[in-house]
């Protein structure tokens, strides 16, 4: 029994843990591990103790004070990190652990921190202020799109523009929207669009992706290029839940590329409806103007009917002719301006509206114009006929008509006072005898009483 005992190698716990530690540290050199922080604690000693875990396993870890005092961030539970260190064993507890010598944020964690820092910096510099942002033109003459020429974002923008306003010219400034060449390409495209000045609003768009995929739109040089742009910039980067630095600097942020195209393009159907309303208002205005002139003519006719002297009648007739000419000129000028305006609008709409619809509306407008002119002409002819009838009526009751029948009118010399009684004249008195044609100068030789 003593021999068997002497042949056994008996380990103490301390010796076993010590040798196990040596085997671990010798077999595993310095290595990198990516994991999520869990159970983070920092006692008064300043050392960091935490757990590294992934979806299937976890590992106890420690980072001593002389290594963690220069960390550029505060380790928090749930943070994804990349650590460098070595495997070891804590002999006092026999605990397998990872001794960390270096730690940095991994993946989107570092990007998110850089995003927040740049956002605070640019906000302090005033690049996000609403006062510096410009309103978009209601009816842009041309649109610039800065995006990948092969991406879905460009196809979405063009699809929306074809539906809403196909006549709007579009200039594409092709750039990479991901990778190391993306940010300088976007800056160059913004500079080129401003230099060429072919469009009056710019769309900066791309489809969705991770924070890393969208990082070109979070770079400071891109943000400052957007702020320096003389042309208004609309950003439509990613999906509705994605936000980039470019969104905050741009004059307007759209949740998607399609929404950006919706925001900058007018609706052709709404324009057509507005033109219909304007045409209807023009027709109503012309009808009211004609009715007003007709009422004015009726008023003039009434005033003429109450006055019989031929001279006044002639003056009013001349005034009516002048009013008629002015009304015709005014109506013609209004029609000419309306026709010019309609022709301009029709020319702008030819490329964006079905030709059949525009042609039908043009014919309707021409028929309405013809009917209006005919109605005006009929009313004027009717007014002239009434004026001629009134003239004939006045002529029939005029004293001149009586003279035409052979009668004469004796007048006191130098006045228009007619002589009605022989007792009103004396022998040798001179009289004017007015005939239908001409006047006789007579002298009275004798008078006879009416009896």
TrEMBL record:
Catalytic activity reported: Exonucleolytic cleavage in either 5'- to 3'- or 3'- to 5'-direction to yield nucleoside 5'-phosphates
One BP annotation, GO: DNA catabolic process
Keywords, comma-separated and alphabetical: Cytoplasm, Exonuclease, Hydrolase, Nuclease
Its job: Bidirectionally degrades single-stranded DNA into large acid-insoluble oligonucleotides, which are then degraded further into small acid-soluble oligonucleotides.
Keyword Glycoprotein: no
Residue ranges of every copy of the OB-fold nucleic acid binding domain listed in the record: 11-104
Record carries keyword Signal: no
InterPro entries found in the cross-reference section: Exonuc_VII_L (IPR003753), Exonuc_VII_lsu_C (IPR020579), OB-fold_nuc-bd_dom (IPR025824)
PANTHER family: EXODEOXYRIBONUCLEASE 7 LARGE SUBUNIT (PTHR30008:SF0)
Protein name: Exodeoxyribonuclease 7 large subunit
Gene Ontology CC terms: cytoplasm; exodeoxyribonuclease VII complex
CDD domains membership: ExoVII_LU_OBF
Subunit (UniProt): Heterooligomer composed of large and small subunits.
Enzyme Commission number, as recorded: 3.1.11.6
Cell compartments where the protein resides: Cytoplasm
């Amino acid at each position: 029994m003593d021999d068997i005992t002497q042949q056994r190698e008996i380990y103490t716990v301390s010796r076993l843990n010590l040798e196990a530690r040596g085997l671990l540290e010798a077999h595993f050199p310095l290595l990198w591990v990516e994991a999520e922080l869990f159970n983070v604690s920092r006692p008064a000693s300043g050392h960091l103790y935490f757990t590294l875990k992934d979806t299937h396993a976890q590992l106890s870890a420690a980072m001593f004070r002389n290594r963690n005092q220069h960390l550029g961030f505060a380790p928090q539970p749930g943070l994804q990190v990349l650590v460098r260190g070595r495997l070891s064993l804590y002999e006092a507890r026999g605990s397998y652990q990872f001794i960390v010598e270096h730690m940095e944020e991994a993946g989107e964690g570092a990007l998110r921190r850089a995003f927040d820092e740049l956002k605070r910096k640019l906000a302090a510099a005033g690049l996000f202020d609403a006062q510096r942002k410009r309103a978009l033109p209601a009816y842009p003459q041309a649109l610039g799109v800065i995006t990948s020429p092969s991406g879905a974002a460009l196809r979405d923008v063009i699809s929306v523009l074809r539906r809403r306003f196909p006549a709007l010219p579009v200039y594409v400034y092709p750039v990479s929207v991901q990778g190391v060449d993306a940010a300088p390409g976007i800056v160059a495209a913004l500079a080129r669009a401003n230099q060429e000045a072919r469009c009056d609003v710019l769309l900066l768009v791309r489809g969705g992706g991770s924070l890393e995929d969208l990082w070109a739109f979070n770079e400071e040089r891109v943000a400052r290029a957007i702020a320096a742009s003389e042309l208004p910039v609309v950003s439509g980067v990613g999906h509705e839940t994605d936000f980039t630095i470019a969104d905050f600097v741009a004059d307007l942020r759209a949740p998607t590329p399609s929404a950006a195209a919706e925001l900058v393009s007018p609706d052709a159907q709404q324009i057509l409806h507005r033109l219909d309303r304007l045409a209807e208002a023009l027709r109503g205005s012309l009808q009211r103007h004609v009715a007003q002139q007709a009422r004015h003519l009726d008023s003039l006719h009434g005033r003429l009917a109450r006055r019989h002297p031929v001279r006044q009648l002639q003056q009013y007739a001349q005034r009516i002719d002048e009013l008629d000419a002015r009304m015709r000129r005014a109506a013609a000028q209004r029609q000419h301006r309306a026709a010019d305006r309609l022709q301009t609008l029709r020319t702008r709409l030819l490329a964006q509206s079905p030709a059949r619809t525009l042609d039908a509306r043009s014919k309707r407008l021409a028929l309405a114009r013809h009917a209006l002119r005919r109605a005006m002409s009929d009313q004027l002819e009717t007014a002239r006929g009434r004026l001629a009838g009134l003239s004939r009526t006045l002529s029939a009751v005029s004293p001149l008509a009586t003279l035409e029948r052979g009668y004469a009118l004796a007048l006191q010399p130098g006045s228009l006072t007619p002589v009605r009684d022989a007792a009103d004249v004396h022998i040798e008195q001179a009289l004017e005898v007015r005939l239908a044609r001409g006047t006789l100068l007579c002298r009275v030789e004798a008078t006879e009483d009416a009896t």
